[in-house]
């Protein structure tokens, strides 16, 4: 039996690409997604009604309309809209333009070892780019470090890169982020981590990484063990993470739901009710233990 190909394009006005079908005449969604990352289905324009029609999708398998693909050009569906790629390119360009004029901010460095000096801090962060300022916060009376400090860079891109990862300074992991005071009064710190619900056991961390890289740089993927049908994906840019929250995306033929991974403050107070009769400090420790177990915080 000769191999059958169907014509698929990202837009009706673009040149189509031929996608191979299976022996039974169906087409795997994964085959389409291999050429058009993020694709969640196909549609076509009916020769009779001239309206767009969706191609039936069952468990990751696309079935030909009336059992015949014909010579039609099938257009790729994306989770958000029909012109996702164009919109993403425009959005990425807008972000680059915006970043080009943005100024850097003081970053707070949390978790510093007591022995770390300002020179140590400058030597470490200078490996990322030009440093304008470093400061280790110290107790006024004793002069001892308070375990945190500040750093500021010349280049905004360097700032973004530094915030996208953890840092090993003098043998201890430290985090860099914008201080809460840099956010607006009604705008909380935005998370770079998203919660991916409805995952299946055949989704590997590498497959999730490859899928989400189409939206932006991925710095970490975490799947709890034993498997609990969810995962966490961390992006380098919080804007990418927040743009995906609330979306339903198709991964390996399965619809997964994306939401914010950060617990809300009022959830902490709610958790206290689960630990009656304990002191506030014990309740707080227990609450975060629950969060660590249920949300996979590390």
UniProtKB/TrEMBL annotation:
Q: Which Pfam families match?
A: RRM_1, TDP-43_N
Principal location: mitochondrion
What Gene Ontology terms describe where this protein resides (cellular component)? chromatin; mitochondrion; nucleoplasm
The record's annotation in PROSITE patterns points to: RRM
What residues does the RRM domain cover?
A: 105-201, 192-263
Gene3D superfamilies documented for this protein: 3.30.70.330
Put simply, this protein is called: TAR DNA-binding protein 43
């Amino acid at each position: 039996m000769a191999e059958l190909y169907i014509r698929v394009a990202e837009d009706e006005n673009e040149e189509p690409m031929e996608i191979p079908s299976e022996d039974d005449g169906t087409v795997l969604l994964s085959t389409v997604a291999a050429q058009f990352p993020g694709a969640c289905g196909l549609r076509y324009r009916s020769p009779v009604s001239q309206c767009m029609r969706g191609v039936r999708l069952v468990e990751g398998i696309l079935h030909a309309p009336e059992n015949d693909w014909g010579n039609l050009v099938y257009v790729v569906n994306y989770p958000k809209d029909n012109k996702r790629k164009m919109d993403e390119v425009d959005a990425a360009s807008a972000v680059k333009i915006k970043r080009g004029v943005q100024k850097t901010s003081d970053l707070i460095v949390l978790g510093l070892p007591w022995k770390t000096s300002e020179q140590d801090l400058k030597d470490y962060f200078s490996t990322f780019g030009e440093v304008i300022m470093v400061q280790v916060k110290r107790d006024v009376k004793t002069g001892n470090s308070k375990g945190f400090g500040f750093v500021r860079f010349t280049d905004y891109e360097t700032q973004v890169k530094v915030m996208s990862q953890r840092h090993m300074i003098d043998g201890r992991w430290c985090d860099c982020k914008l201080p809460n005071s840099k956010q607006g009064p009604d705008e909380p710190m935005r998370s770079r981590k998203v919660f991916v619900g409805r995952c299946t056991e055949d989704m590997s961390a590498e497959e999730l990484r490859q899928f989400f890289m189409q939206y932006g740089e991925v710095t970490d993927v975490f799947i709890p063990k034993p498997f609990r049908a969810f995962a966490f994906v961390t992006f380098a840019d919080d804007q990418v993470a927040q743009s995906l929250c609330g979306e339903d995306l198709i991964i390996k033929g399965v619809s997964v739901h994306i939401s914010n991974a950060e617990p809300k403050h009022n959830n902490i107070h709610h958790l206290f009710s689960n630990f009656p009769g304990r002191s506030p400090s014990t309740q707080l420790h227990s609450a975060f233990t629950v969060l660590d177990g249920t949300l996979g915080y590390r």
